[in-house]
Amino acid sequence: MTTKPLVRFLDRRTAPHLVTLILLAGIAALNMSIFLPSLNGMTVYFGTDYAVMQLAVSGYLAATAVLQIFVGPLADRFGRRPMVLGALAIFVLATLGAVMAPTVEVFLAFRLLQAAVVTTMVLSRAIVRDMVPDDQAASMIGYVTMGMALVPMIGPAIGGALDQAFGWHASFAFLALAGLGVLALAYHDLGETVAGSGMDFRAQMRTYPELLTSPRFWGYVACAAFGSGAFFALLGGASFVAGAVFGLSPFWTGIALGSPAIGYALGNGLSGRYSVRLGIDRMILIGTGVASAGMGLSMVLTLAGLSHPLLFFGFCTTLGLGNGLMLPNATAGSLSVRPHLAGTASGLGGAIMIGGGALLSAAAGTLLTKETGALPLQAIMFVTSLLAMAAIGLVMRRTARLGR
């Protein structure tokens, strides 16, 4: 028999309310997606190249990859509450700095500081595990991650509408107000759920060799890195493709950027329903196959001279669908390789995945020009999806040969 934790909204002496945890996860996702429709316009505003402006995506991803390694051990040692409140305060100040930035260099510096908000995403799930037993945690984490799934659908649309009405500054002003609201909510509702326990960073590093010498761990992590890397490349290049290649307004760019999230949400639902029946490896193979087929067909149509925003972003839905099928199962696979090191595997695997995504996002921003059109981005997404399929193929082959 399990018992539910005592919850009184805006009373930090009790467990935090589910709404608070959803918003903690959601503000981090919103920071990633809301300004994407503005990237092309911001390039013009700051008088720079798109490849430089795109560092607001790839540089941010690189910073979050590094932070993910440290957040868990620091929160175990110093507690969840001070880490969350400190991260939100840094985020609000950095966002205000970005709004007032006079040059692209100053803007990018504040953008990197905004990465502190990834702390709230990581710890929102850890707080759930602090609060309830394992049999209840999966359900609650599902609700928390709902915010991370829904925000990428609506965030770019909000940012596109704000940009079209008031300019790109409005999206960051909105972020600052949202961050301030979540900070106030967390201050009043989030008490401490754990402190002074867990594995410190040095102890965590001592477990790395056991994971890094496991071929199956590398197989699952490579699959996740390549598969999600295709999506991160899309984040880095989609604004340019929408604005410079297809001539879409910021508003319609925001609407178009929501297409992969629709596919991802559907893929997540199918994954939850069929993963137990089909097994995680088969679900990963299906997901990477869907993404590869969709991106391959998209590239073939462009080479044949059929280029239209509905075709390009329509096929991006298949990328989201494939990732929705692949990513939860690849994550579960990487955690299952060494169950006693699940926490370390989660942080290390996440850092490798997002770090790889940062490189692919930067590559997309560098290769795209008006002359090339969308083709370099389509090629990156197709090749990385194929590499993800190859990675899970090697895992399945090893499992069949060794029986584990």
Mean pLDDT: 83
The N- to C-terminal Cα distance equals 34 Å
Major beta sheet, specifics?
Answer: none
Give the number of DSSP strands.
0
- Classified in CATH, the superfamily of the largest domain is MFS general substrate transporter like domains
Radius of gyration: 21 Å
β-strand percent reads under 5%
Question: CATH top level of the largest domain?
Answer: Mainly Alpha
Uncertain spans:
none
Number of helices: 18
Q: Which second-level CATH architecture of the largest domain applies?
A: Up-down Bundle
CATH topology of the largest domain: Growth Hormone, Chain: A
Order of helical and strand elements: HHHHHHHHHHHHHHHHHH
SS-based structural class?
Answer: mainly alpha
Verbal overview:
This protein is an all-alpha fold and 404 residues long. It folds into two domains: 14-190 and 200-206, MFS general substrate transporter like domains (Growth Hormone, Chain: A), CATH 1.20.1250.20; 209-404, Growth Hormone, Chain: A, CATH 1.20.1250.20. The chain contains 18 helices and no strands. Helix 8 (134-166) packs antiparallel against helix 14 and helix 15 (280-303) runs antiparallel to helix 18.
